[in-house]
Records
---
Amino acid sequence: MELGLAGKVALVTGSSRGIGRAIAELLAAEGCAVMLTGRDAAALAETQRAIASKGGKAKSQLAELREPTAPAALVDVVKHDFGRLDILVHNAGATKRGDFLALTDDDWADGFALKFFAHMRLARAAWPLLKAAGGAVLAIGGNGAAKPTSDFTIGSSVNAAVAAFHKALSDIGKRDGIQVNTLHPGHVDTGRMRRQMEARIAKSGRDMAAEIEAYRRELNVPRIGVPDDIAAMAAFILSPRGRWLHGATIIMDGGEIEML
């Protein structure tokens, strides 16, 4: 299926690994010029090389988006290097799990700092470029927003806030011609998930494959997701073929959440 993304410029945060990298690589394969950003210079460079090796176009910019001035500075780099911005993917951010009574104010502040406040500032800074291009914003949240658990109080709260913010932003998008949506992945086989599995392995004594299979059965899903699953959905949403989707929050988790 031709998605009609050739010639567009995309900025993907947290694009050096995992879901963000998969989205960046697929957008580049579909003909977008992609600005990669994250905090790991070596991982960004490797992602940029991987895109270039397949004929794609990408640049990278180190950024600590928790810093209040960093989002606007990143948008300035995109404008300087590419002259426009059509697609903004809010992907960066991780939150701490643990006992609610043991989590500190700093843990909560850090959870919101990158995944919520940085992306709020980034959307605000990028809005004029997106408006000029008739562009699109996609937030990558997490299905914890719809399935809060006792060990994920920060993550569930942050992801719910992400969806609420982007739903509100979509109303402004109607006025300004900018598509805005949120995509909540379920459990996806990334380095982050495997680190969670290591803690389980320490208790169970199983190997990684067996532990992931046990986790799959607990979740009651046909399989654990992979980053390319989320990237494929993201690319469709962001393409002209998905343009009528607006103000939506989509849960893509293999059926883990059975009803909202």
Note: The chain has a mean pLDDT of 96.
---
Amino acid sequence: MESYYTLITGSSSGIGKAFAFECARRKMDLILVSRPSERLSAAAEEISSKYSVDVKYFAIDLTEFDAPRKVFEWCLEQQLKVNYLINNAGTVGTNPFDKCQPEYLDSIIMLNIRALTLLTRLFLPELKKHPGSKILNVGSMSGFFPIPYKSVYSASKSYVHSFSRSLQAELKGSGVEVYLVAPNGVQSNPRVTERIKDHKLIGALVSMSAEKFAVLALDKVEKGRRFYIPLFSNKLLFALSRMLPDTLMLNLIKKEFRKELGS
């Protein structure tokens, strides 16, 4: 029997690690891709030991120009058949735009947009060889709104949403299904958790643990749900945003996210 692999980016910690553990629990063999760190090898060893699945890993910084191609070529060299691509890796922060270093802004674009796009393009011919293949792109509620102090991040997630929905239509009937999930606050690391706490009651209502998010997202993919917003509170927030005048909505969002700046 041939072995097929689920490739997960950003899988040494946070949401990506939660995805890796949940996929392994569902008996998927894995390829973990993340920045060089002892956490990556440790996660691979722990998952393999706990769930008795095959776990490969490749350490690389996906913001590097040639990184997507290096990942793809490594998989070819290792003769690893990928039938599930989870584009999870991303970076986020909260800062006034004019205070952001150009290198920081470039890293968001390179990781959230460029790496996701090129990995999808490079692996697509391989995915098409295996009927039932899937691509899961991790978007964000931020992609539905212009967000002051997260301007480039929210714009990058808007790109992910548009890109994913376009591919859903374009690849219909190709044997490759594209899924998009758009969470709000996910408690993926202590820093993010503190930012969620800055929003107090609202933060508590719209957020969840990385482990719960991974379970919900993968469940929806298994059920064929192409687009998914986790939690009723987030669905309500999305619906309400469509009813408010743009100027009012933007002012409310600016006031809310200023809290993450401590002002």
Note: The beta strands are 4-9, 29-34, 55-59, 81-87, 133-138, 176-181, 186-187, 208-209, 227-228.
---
Amino acid sequence: MSRENGVMEKKNLSQQTADRLYNMIAVEKTLLPGDKLPNEVELSQRLGVSRTTLREAIHTLVSQGLLEARRGRGTFVSQGAAQVNDYGFSSLDRVRGELRDLFELRQIFEPSAARLACLRATEEELDAVLTCGRAVEARILAGEDRTEADRAFHAAIVRATHNAFLMRLLPMINQAVATAMGDREHKEQLAEDTRRDHALLMEFFRSRDPAGAEHAMAIHMRRSMEVMGLEKDL
């Protein structure tokens, strides 16, 4: 097995583990807000994975806000997890047809989210959107991984809508971003398109143009689908 294949399999296993923990929280409700996770040895044995893989999975869910690491105390299910619904999207990056459905749904709500964010964002929230957008551009120009920066950018937009139900869709957005970032075949094209689309989107945010922001986000969603070949079956 090549080193690259070994890294990819490890990544897939850590994501599968994150999905299993996600389901325990969002679907099965065997882990509730405020609950402390079992210790690493016990939980890794329960899930049948190494402690290293478990740590990577936990890090993923911490970054999504479902888990909270408290120094010296352990890892807990966050109170915000109570607001998360699964919506059946916990393994979308493994099924192409469902991935297409995911991006179609993003096409429906993310342009509207951009419009609402333009209308409702406070000055601090608007500044957060623009700061996150610049961070994405900087990572693209530097040839660095932009996954976390891209997630933060879309999350900043959704937070600025002040819509609690849109906030519940953040895990889905994070899943879609992670899937796109892992698309090795189209990585460079997606990066260049993202840089260009985000630049246009941020111009509309700066000018508080809701119609423009909505249109720019729709273009971004459509272009991403085209590059990844998700429109062929439409």
Note: The chain has ten helices and two strands.
